[in-house]
Write a structure and sequence with these properties.
It contains 16 helices and no strands. By secondary structure, it is mainly α. It folds into 2 domains: 1-55, no CATH class; 56-273, Hypothetical protein af1432.
Length: 276
């Protein structure tokens, strides 16, 4: 990690971005908690997270610039939910054996609610009206946003990313993260975000949306779960009873997706509790 830090130090712009991202996203604005050393930042983040954050740096820097005009915006709630969704999206896609080489999985999760921030800055009165009211479901929230400003936050965020030349895969996933079956580029990526959004809320990290905390295991009923993992409980029609029993016995010796997901959620909860 020391060697990585040394490479980062050779580029003053890169050094500034890494430190700004670490302190702004993970530690809010409390000066006494700020990280000032590149090596410390590198150790805290890890190489993969540095790559992930830098991939989204142009948009994140623009978010910070826009955010200066919205001092009352609850940054900690916004970033905790966004970071949790990003981490979990990557984990879920890994469980489904879906791999991404250009960090689209993490970046899509990190920026999935970008439209909420843009809504707060561009239509502050409508933002207050929308987000002070509780919504039963994310889809109810989208309908309310659309009725007030014409577009919901998912479409607003997707358009902003498209206008900044972010990859089509990320734009499509952000646009349809609440309705992944509508995604045309990669429905599994949009599905992972939908599931992650729900699971992070199950942990009590609700972000900006005043929806109720989802019930335990409610993610299993989402269309995104069916798209990403299918129906794991129904045996194929051409499998006999004996073959199915043998298969179930073999699978019982391995951790299920739910078991592995439970472990991931426990680690994620600890990570998010460390973000102030």
């Amino acid at each position: 990690m020391a060697q990585i830090a040394e490479v980062i130090r050779l580029d003053p712009s890169l050094t500034t971005r890494v430190l700004d991202l670490v302190n702004s996203i993970f530690f809010g604005t409390k000066d006494e908690q700020r990280i000032s050393g590149v090596e410390e930042a590198s150790i805290f983040l890890g190489l993969n997270r540095i790559k992930e954050l830098l991939a989204a740096t142009p948009v994140i820097e623009e978010i910070f610039r826009l955010g200066k005009s919205s001092e009352s915006f609850p940054w900690v709630d916004f970033w905790k939910h966004s970071i949790g969704t990003a981490i979990l999206s990557r984990e879920l896609l890994s469980l489904a054996d879906e791999k991404f080489e250009q960090e689209e999985d993490y970046v899509s999760g990190l920026l999935h609610n970008l439209g909420i921030l843009i809504l707060a800055i561009t239509f502050p009165e409508h933002f207050e009206e929308v987000y002070r009211k509780p919504s039963d479901t994310p889809l109810n929230l989208l309908e309310l946003e659309g009725s007030l400003v014409g577009w919901d936050h998912a479409k607003i965020g997707a358009y902003y990313l498209w206008n900044h030349h972010i990859s089509e895969e990320v734009v499509d996933a952000v646009h349809w993260h609440n309705e992944p079956s509508q995604a045309t580029v990669n429905p599994k990526l949009a599905s992972a975000i939908q599931i992650s959004d729900n699971l992070v809320k199950q942990l009590g990290v609700l972000g900006m949306e005043k929806t109720e905390r989802p019930a335990k295991d409610s993610h299993l009923e989402l269309e995104g779960w069916k798209i990403l993992f299918g129906d794991k409980t129904v045996p194929p029609a051409d499998e006999g009873e004996e073959e199915q029993e043998q298969k179930e016995e073999e699978e019982s010796l391995e951790p299920t997706i739910e078991d592995r997901l439970s472990e991931t959620l426990e680690r994620l909860s600890q990570t998010l509790n460390g973000i102030v």
